[in-house]
Amino acid sequence: MSQNNKGSGEKVTTSQGYPLPNPFETQRIGNHGPLLLQDFNLIDSLAHFDRERIPERVVHAKGSGAYGFFEVTDDISDVCGSGFLDTIGKKTKALVRFSTVGGEQGSADAARDPRGFAIKLYTEEGNLDWVYNNTPVFFIRDPIKFPHFIHTQKRNPQTHLKDPNMFWDYLVQNQEAIHQFMILFSDRGTPATYRHMNGYSGHTYKWSNAKGEWRYIQVHLISDQGIKTLNNEEAGSLSGSNPDHAQEDLFNSIEKGDSPSWTAYIQSMTEEEAQNLPFSVFDLTKVWPHDQFPLRRFGKLVLNENPENYFAEIEQAAFSPSHTVPYQEASADPVLQSRLFSYPDTHRHRLGTNYAQIPVNCPYAKTFNPILRDGAMTINGNYGSKPNYYSGTVPTPVEYTPQPKVNYQSNQEYWQGTAQPFHWKVEGDIDYVQARDLYNKVLSKTPGQQENLAHNISVHVCGAKPEIQDEVFKLFNKISKKLSEDIQKEVFKLSPRSNYQQTTSSNASGKCPYGHSKL
Ligand code: NDP
């Protein structure tokens, strides 16, 4: 575009299509006088700019995304009757958005944080969203703790700083989170890139086959690039030198044709097997041990296309575990149940009630629901003159989908009972068992991983008050005496107690990366 709009490129117009002789011209009185209210293009440009931002997601604000496809590699029709899985080799268009959780939109990709791994599959039976993370477990199992927990990972209400006191105080008071904290503080808490990490459903889902037989399911997406992680110091320095390193890596890899992929597996469990577990199948803080529930391969997810426009296609992408297809359902996992509400609620807030009409969110499958009418940004024709209710007298060209031969939901769990107060407390030893397995059986296999865990915790917990540090040492002692001692030793080195007595607002040794909070 030339500045006088006379070049051979696209001609600039106002938002209403008026061809602008020069897009930089404004209307004013004389050579130096005030500007005119009648200058629609100036006012429209400034007013539009003022509205460019939409609310950022309260969690998962910083993200990166790409398109690709899901390909069926193995028959699992005995487990799932969903159409997109019915033929080996069948491909379904996919959109994936990776993210960090706690940081704001400009925060560093290398932060120690779980990573979101949200997938939209545009299937012939509607959109299926798998809204996963790179960790197989999570911090909570009582959904009401979510806002409470996230507040402790965000900024202190007074100092507006990240606060190690809030962070560790939460853990010692909510010890069901220990398993996820240990994964987070292992080197898997700082993946090298989005390509080098796995995705896990974490939650238990319910899948059914065409005969109506159902199972509990967990999905694992294992990176074909392998796992690569950063150590604490590499992550810290990358956060400063290139806060967008994971966005850059994903975009550039796809741009040069190096398409990342993940192999998809399920773990499945019958209702009877679930009743015999030592923990609840709906407990989001637990994994299903591989030896009892082996992985079964069924597909491949490939990312091979960058979005044309980040804001339109990634910032506006709206995922929800309640966007599902026949034969795949949520289980009674309480955190999953609350996500079914909370995700679409966020989209209605950020994008409006018609978020499903935004092209990136719009199903490729035909939709017809003339009850979903009107509202801000109705752009899909609004079902024209068709009745806005299911009329008995006005013929409504409703084609009801034929019922499947088997009502696959009819033989599922039977729930009955009175309304009950529910708080899933930590009781007994079971909430520490898998965290111990991680330390003793898994991290021990790779030299340096147990030491890195202790170090990664120490350089963070050294910023907390001594009384909170003491509780952290006691908690890790329940996992391993050695782990607790290693943490304690390094914390005392980084943040000697005598220094704490002298100064509560900064760390006199200067070695602890966090200053003590005054609060
Ligand atoms: P396994 O020995 O069969 O599984 C251990 C799994 O841990 C590996 O397959 C791998 O899963 C994952 N892993 C390997 N290295 C690390 C690491 N440095 N940090 C975190 N995870 C790692 O035993 P179990 O199935 O009985 O699980 C034992 C423990 O392993 C669990 O308590 C849990 O903490 C952890 N784990 C288990 C997973 C599961 O689904 N069973 C998944 C991930 C972790 P992957 O192939 O998925 O990378």
From TrEMBL:
Pfam family, one: Catalase
Family annotation (SMART domains): Catalase
Cofactor(s) annotated in UniProt: heme
UniProt catalytic activity: 2 H2O2 = O2 + 2 H2O
Region of interest (Disordered), ranges: 1-25, 496-519
Gene name, Swiss-Prot/TrEMBL: CAT1
Function comment: Catalyzes the degradation of hydrogen peroxide (H(2)O(2)) generated by peroxisomal oxidases to water and oxygen, thereby protecting cells from the toxic effects of hydrogen peroxide.
GO annotation (BP), single: hydrogen peroxide catabolic process
InterPro entries in the record: Catalase, Catalase_AS, Catalase_clade1/3, Catalase_core, Catalase_haem_BS, Catalase_immune_responsive, Catalase_sf
GO MF, any single term: catalase activity
Amino-acid positions noted as binding heme in the UniProt annotation, renumbered to this chain: 343
Protein name: Catalase
Species for this entry: Wickerhamomyces ciferrii (strain ATCC 14091 / BCRC 22168 / CBS 111 / JCM 3599 / NBRC 0793 / NRRL Y-1031 F-60-10)
